[in-house]
Amino acid sequence: MINTDIAIVGGGPAGLCAAISAAESGAKVTLIERDGELGGQLVKQTHMFFGSEKQYASTRGIDIIDILLEKLEKNKENVTIMKNTTVLGRYEDGVITAMEDENKYLKIKPEALVIGTGATEKFLGFPNNDLPGIYGAGAVQTLMNVYGVRPGDKVLMVGAGNIGLIVSYQLMQAGVKVEAIIDAAPKIGGYLVHASKIRRMGVPIYTSHTVKEAVGTDHLEKAIIWELDEKWQPIKGSEKEYDVDVMCVSVGLSPLNELLVMAGCEMQYVPELSGNVPLRNENYETTAENIFVAGDSCGVEEASSAMVEGYLAGLTAAAKISKIHPDYEKKKADYVKQLDDLRSGPVGKHIRAGIEKIVRR
Amino acid sequence: MLEKTGVPTKEQVINEFPDESRINEGPVVVIECYKEIPCNPCTTACKFNAIHIGEDINKRPEVTEEKCIGCGVCLSKCPGLAIMLVDGSKSEKYVHMTIPYEFYPLPEEGNMVEGLDRKGELLEKVKVLKVMNPKSYDRTPLIKLEVSRKYMYDFRNIRLEED
Question: Contact, A144 vs A151, CB < 8 A?
Fold first, then answer.
């Protein structure tokens, strides 16, 4: 049995920041990551981040990892890092079980738990959507930017949210032709600056369009799209065909919430936060005592806010087990303000509405 | 229009440009950040306090043209690559326009490349005047181009000819 003050599940932006913040508060932290490297989705984010200086704006995601790892290193006497380790369950006595290197079972008993498991890609239903060559956009980004593998020659991007727009741009940077970006919604969902920078490379963006079907025998050869009317119904005769060998599906993310459900956290389906999320208080503590949450697993948002949520949850989780940072009040107020700043504009409107539904004061 | 296609209208573009008299005095930024998003590195980057966003980081940037010296530091710091420089002081026929360009291979000084509009359509061949890629630009190189003055409000990108 491994005893620790705080176990943190997930070594992405939220989990890394939670580990830094809890360790700085004096708590012994065990950071558990199922992948071989820390960083979560940051490992493939070659673009510059938005936000302000405090969330490392205008620094590339791949470089933010180094900043966070350096902060973690400064607190190394308080931090144990377990990579290639997947948390499997949490039991009534508060013990979590994990598997290391796919061959070794571990039992970990933390005083408090921070869950930062992130999110998973949603998919889209259409005929032949299982043909090789049809990927989630995140998978394509991993192939290109982590493994240096070219996913194909010609791409249809489905989804004009930030991920769809950014991955399209990065495909073009990798020398892959993006034939078009389509989105079922009547307006572009992502930041317009991302849309404009891919549009001025000659890539058309078609809103109110969706996939009719994919065509191919043993791999994708053609994608057929059609237009949607104002009631989101397909318009017959509006079909367009693209000879593409790759289709990227980027239609949103859902929170990865299995551990939260298993731990008995009260959950609620909140469309604005993209799925089932735990009820929580302003300290990011769920209804299950001493279980905290941060990042996309408590509502899909940007990585900037995931980092700030992580810092906040690490700080409050440590305080809950009497490891109180000397500047607790000041730090907490700063994180709360940063989150308010990130969410206060028009693009944060749905996030504010979603959070309103889950926060218990 | 912009929210459906990613292409701003000509009116939107012209609205973000300073008066031609200011452009003719020397380089100045044009910021095409049409939608409120939580982001302010342009203000942090500017040492001359020429770009203002304020307490609410969701507000759109406002440029004080008299303060902008056209140094171009903000161009490589903008995560949306939404800033360019325009300089009408060099000739009557041409303006010098500087854009961020994150594609390899980079053009070389003296090259003629395709000058594109906001839909990626060819306007004219333009001459590469300068390629700037110091470490401080963090892999967002800036390219200075000689563009016909009549395309000042249309030019926004370049394409190198494929070989």
Answer: yes
